[in-house]
Amino acid sequence: MSTGPALVSILRQGSTLVASIHTALDDSQMLRFQDDLVRQIGEHRSRGVIIDVAALDVLDSFGTRTLRTIAEMARLRGARTVVVGIQPEVAYSMVQLGTGVGGLTTALDLEDGLALLADLTDSSNGPGPVVSR
């Protein structure tokens, strides 16, 4: 039984997980992606997560909220998250609709995201303690 092309791929690169969303996801697919990614953070003892949304031409409020939730869950599991590849039209729409990324760390593309993540997770200090405010 073929399920068609993958909607999301999650690859491991050292202590970093790189998750690429290949097409728009409905709400249930987005939640399944969230569960899979957070589970894999623990399985691989990941210190960093890159979520690449370059293939998306729309990012609705539920998708944006889910990305923020993933980043917070990853942080609580000891990993930093960087979202990369937000297209100019998507950024414009998000600002116009008031669905900004809030406290998410973003970068232009995968290369910049990996460099930023390397700075955030500094190999000698780790991602730092979890501090509640």
Automatic annotation (TrEMBL):
In terms of Gene3D superfamilies, this protein maps to: STAS domain
Per UniProt, residues of the STAS domain are 6-117
This one is known as RsbT antagonist protein RsbS
